[in-house]
Amino acid sequence: MLLSFVGRPLNSLRVSGALTKATVAMADALAKIPDVEIDPEGIFKYILVRVKVKDGDVHKDIVRGTKSAEYHNHIFEKVSPAMEALGMECKCLGGGKIEHKSQDKKLRVFGESTAFGKADHSVSVEKLKSAYSNYEITWSDDKK
User: Where does substrate bind (predicted)?
Assistant: First the structure.
């Protein structure tokens, strides 16, 4: 017979406490990942990525975009290993393009990724608004 404390098995008290601490630590690590990392100027490809704590349900969506990527999967190939190093896993939810005019404080989200399909630009725009609150940000389903 298993010893118990107030009707609970003793071993379950330790395990649940450890799991709670690990979950909180991973949620904190997830919170430290920037929502948006994009180039400061120009027209470039971007992806919307769901980052999730490995073996957990806690997740968030992030936007990554750069002129240095010839294809959308090049962005994902950099983001995924960086997230895995933090104990996360990620999935690309789609892509498109961003036009960033920093002098005019304007961002335009449009287009789609051949490899990953079209990101939900409305979700991407909400993320961009959190990082660029003083910008005019628009989006469309146009390809150009």
Answer: 45
